[in-house]
Design brief:
3 domains; about 450 residues; nine-stranded mixed β-sheet; Protein-Tyrosine Phosphatase, Chain A; alpha/beta; UDP-N-acetylmuramoyl-L-alanine:D-glutamate ligase; 20 strands; 17 helices; Rossmann fold; six-stranded mixed β-sheet; about 20% strand
């Protein structure tokens, strides 16, 4: 019997373990951290052997194949030992793709992928398609393949997930943009990160679709280099050479494969970055053959994504916006660009090799004060202090950061949590960071 070992027992790993067990493999799960109770129960219910708090090498290095959770770095000691023994290491998505013939709609990009993925799923679901949501959001793809049947899966893919995908094929691949992110995982080499993102197009055929932002200089430069076989569907803010989706005369227009149009003001999501998200989602739905009226309705009634430019409340004339999902500098750039009032910006956390020069001009023009929230704020002080803005340095937690921002903000201004950084210095996740922000804002 073939032995499958799963490293990491979160949503991805636990789901992969269930699918492996259902398919008759000798299955073992190992996690260096503590496994959440709900995943222990899931594993126990399927009689899957697991361990937590350590990796027992004797039980791992005898695997025929290893499924690695995306959060485990490629230079982790156990990964290096697996590579020494030439044991194949794949992702949960790669594994799950072997056992379903569903159409795969896959979305990646440095920014906008969660909103675009959620919007595509909303359109497909609203139109009555049998669709699952998976990847970085939603439930584990492997668990859904093990327990359910869907005709379509809409999957958000990080670069980490793409790293260990080899034969998986996206029928519709969406690449929103490429800006520096996670460079600490890519040897601080931008090209390594770019190549990871372009893995979404591998194995595509001329029958498949590749949707991308036409104005992204990196994507345009790399198109020829990656030898993409899929049909190209570029989108842009305005009509230009090559773009098949754009805005003209205040109207969203898609020219392929079926002509589609709707008034831009009817889009539920506002702002330039959300226009791109809506265009990519509209093309995807168009390619799936969804009726125009269903696409229009879903694009106009979508509710947005939690922790992404989420309006929390107004306290004494000061608006509070939760953009905790902004874990890189470019994402914060989009948030600041969309602000129509002066901003007290809360930023900081686990730096991933950030270059803050991208937001320097927006901070100069839009921010009235800055709150640095993190255990190590030296880099933030070094870059932003010369701008001469009032600042607060908070190393204790979100409660103090919210109170500091509230004191710095004036009536008519906005307090924006858009951290530019990962959350793992003071918080369990960006969701935890956003939830704490909302909690303490509501207690003001």
């Amino acid at each position: 019997m073939k032995r499958i070992v799963i490293l990491g027992a979160g949503e991805s790993g636990a789901g992969a373990a269930v699918l492996a067990k259902v398919k008759g493999f000798d299955t073992f799960v190992s996690d260096m951290s503590t496994i959440k109770d709900k995943y222990k129960t899931l594993l126990d219910n399927h009689q899957i052997t697991w361990e937590e708090g350590s990796h027992t090498e004797a039980l791992i290095l005898n695997a025929d194949e290893v499924i690695k959770s995306p959060g485990i770095p490629n230079d982790a000691p156990i990964i290096l030992k697996l590579k020494e023994k030439n044991i194949p290491i794949i992702s949960e998505i790669e594994f799950a793709g072997r056992y379903t013939d569903a159409k795969m709609v896959c979305i990646t990009g440095s920014n906008g992928k969660t909103t675009t993925t959620s919007l595509i799923y909303h359109i497909f679901k609203s139109a009555g398609l049998n669709v699952g949501l998976a990847g970085n959001i939603g439930r584990s793809l492997a668990l859904q393949v093990a327990e359910e049947h869907h005709d379509y899966y809409v999957i958000e893919l990080s670069s980490f997930q793409l790293d260990n995908m080899y034969n998986f094929r996206a029928n519709i691949a969406v690449l929103m943009n490429i800006t520096p992110d996670h460079l600490d995982r890519y040897e601080h080499c931008m090209q390594n990160y770019i190549d990871a993102k372009f893995r979404i197009t591998q194995n595509q055929t001329p029958d498949d679709a590749f949707i991308f932002w036409n104005d992204d200089p990196i994507i345009k430069r790399e198109l020829d280099r990656h030898g993409i076989k899929a049909h190209l569907y570029p989108f842009a803010a305005v009509k230009e050479d090559g773009a098949i989706a754009y805005v003209e005369d205040s109207e969203v227009r898609i020219t392929e494969p079926i002509a589609f149009n709707m008034e831009q003001e009817e889009l539920a999501l506002t702002g330039q970055h959300n226009l791109y998200n809506s265009l990519a989602a509209g093309i995807s739905a168009n390619l799936a053959g969804i009726a125009k009226e269903d696409i229009r309705k879903a694009l106009s009634d979508f509710k947005g994504v939690e922790h992404r430019l989420e309006k929390v409340t107004r306290v004494r004339g000061i608006d509070f916006i939760n953009d905790s999902k902004a874990t890189n500098v470019n994402s914060c750039w989009y948030a600041l660009q969309s602000m129509t009032t002066k901003v007290v910006l809360i930023l900081g956390g686990k730096d991933k090799g950030n270059d803050y020069s991208e937001i320097e001009e927006l901070v100069r023009s839009k921010c009235s004060a800055l709150v640095f929230l993190g255990l190590h704020n030296e880099k933030l002080h070094e870059f932003f202090d010369p701008l001469g803005l009032p600042t607060a340095d908070i190393q204790t937690g979100m409660k103090d950061a919210v109170e500091a921002a509230y004191k710095l903000a004036k009536k008519g201004e906005t307090v924006l949590l858009s951290p530019c950084c990962a959350s793992f210095d003071l918080f369990n996740s960006y969701e935890d960071r956003g939830e704490q922000f909302k909690k303490y804002v509501r207690e003001l």
